[in-house]
Design a protein that fits this description.
By secondary structure, this protein is mostly helical. Helix content is 63%, strand content 0%. It has nine helices and no strands. It is globular and about 55 Å long. It starts with a helix and ends in an 11-residue tail after the last helix.
Length: 207
């Protein structure tokens, strides 16, 4: 029993070291970081693909010119569709120039925090940014404004939930892409058709 307890303690210590980034820079550490990063983007993307279609399909948001996620880019570049968020003129981004504006916003809003995370905690201290965590979980007010990492046990549980949900989200995005390629429709439209006639509107229809 003592040996088993010692093994469990050693396993727990190794697991804790792993989550704290002790293996950063190794091959496995690189894979873990890549998986976590893709998981986070996939969770945002999976939700982002559904919201415009749901607003247009179920709540009558006619101001959404193109609610299907995979059609938006083509519509803006080739059909002259204006991206107008919730009918607010101040957020209007017109035509092909809108793609450049969106790219610039993404560079600042997404690239900025990602660069801050990637360059390392010590590199940010001279500019007054102090992060208590590691490259995968920087923490601090910048990355953890709600203080979710204050309780170590709860924080470990949240990390497990994050990676599990992230893996499901990556599979979801793969499913969205395959459905779009096969059916030429949005995920919610596919779901509605399946629920209305599950015997005929299913994968067997396209085999």
């Amino acid at each position: 029993e003592e040996e088993e307890e010692e093994e469990e303690e050693e396993g727990g210590e190794l697991d804790l070291k792993w989550r704290k980034g002790a293996y950063a820079g190794t091959r496995l550490g690189t894979f873990f970081e890549a998986e976590l990063l893709h998981a986070r983007w996939a969770m945002l993307a999976a939700l982002g693909c559904l919201i415009p279609e749901a607003l247009a399909r179920y709540f009558g948001f006619e101001s959404i010119a193109e609610p299907i996620w995979w059609k938006v880019g083509y519509s803006v570049l080739h059909d002259g569709v204006d991206i107008n968020y919730a009918g607010l003129q101040g957020f209007r981004i017109a035509g092909d120039k809108g793609v450049l504006a969106i790219a610039a916003c993404q560079l600042v809003l997404m690239g900025g925090p990602e660069y801050a995370r990637r360059v390392g905690i010590e590199s940010l201290e001279p500019v007054g940014i102090f992060l208590p965590g590691d490259v995968n979980y920087p923490g601090g007010q910048l990355f953890d404004p709600l203080g979710l990492s204050d309780d170590p046990d709860e924080f470990l549980e949240q990390q497990v939930k994050e990676i599990k949900n992230g893996r499901l989200a990556m599979l979801s995005m793969l499913g969205y892409a395959v459905q779009a390629f096969v059916t030429g429709e949005g995920p919610l439209e596919n779901l509605d058709k399946f629920l209305s006639d599950p015997m005929h509107e299913n994968i067997l229809k396209y085999l």
